[in-house]
Specification:
This protein is an alpha+beta fold. Helix content is 34%, strand content 15%. Strands 1-2-3-5-4 form a five-stranded antiparallel beta sheet. A hairpin with a 3-residue loop joins strand 1 and strand 2. The longest helix is centred in the middle third of the chain and has 21 residues. The structure holds guanosine-5'-monophosphate.
């Protein structure tokens, strides 16, 4: 399938839709998931228009993984978690719902995730912003 630039993350990248940003560099953007599966649920996306991991050139993938590590460490610190889940879905048949490549950073466990629906309920804006503040602070301190 070819990349559809009308997906919500492409619109966020172009500034056509808002997001609660926690990190940005030349190659990547990280922001809070609007339907979090746990407090602190953060998404990291490449600026490169790739639908899934297999569409991403390796050199761009290296930048993306570097940002996933950086933001992942900050989420761990901010949410005071030892263990976190990092998830990435490829294709609708795997459950992907937004067709711009993204990594989910979720400060929770696989067991706790099992009882949470994926991308189903809009989260509390205030809680999301409070988590974002903590993550930004951890990033600034890193
Ligand atoms: P996927 O199912 O593709 O792996 O994950 C897509 C994620 O994007 C879901 O967790 C969903 O909650 C999140 N999401 C969908 N629409 C928006 C949006 O407009 N803004 C933000 N911040 N997250 C979104």
């Amino acid at each position: 399938m070819s990349y559809d630039d009308q997906n919500v993350f492409a619109k966020i990248l172009r500034g056509e839709l808002p997001c609660t940003k926690v990190y940005e560099d030349e190659h990547t953007l990280a922001f809070m998931d609007i339907m979090p599966q746990c407090d602190g649920h953060t998404l990291v996306i490449p600026k490169y228009p790739a639908e899934n991991l297999f569409d991403l050139p390796s050199d761009v993938a290296a930048h993306l993984i570097s940002s996933v590590q950086k933001v992942g460490r900050a989420v761990k610190t901010a949410m005071q978690r030892d263990g976190i889940v990092i998830m990435q879905l490829n294709d609708q048949s795997a459950g992907q719902t937004v067709f711009h490549l993204h990594f989910h950073i979720m400060p929770t466990s696989l067991m706790a995730l099992g009882s949470q629906q994926h991308a189903e309920k809009i989260g509390d804006r205030q809680v999301i912003e409070q988590c974002a503040e903590k993550i930004r602070a951890a990033l600034n301190a890193s």
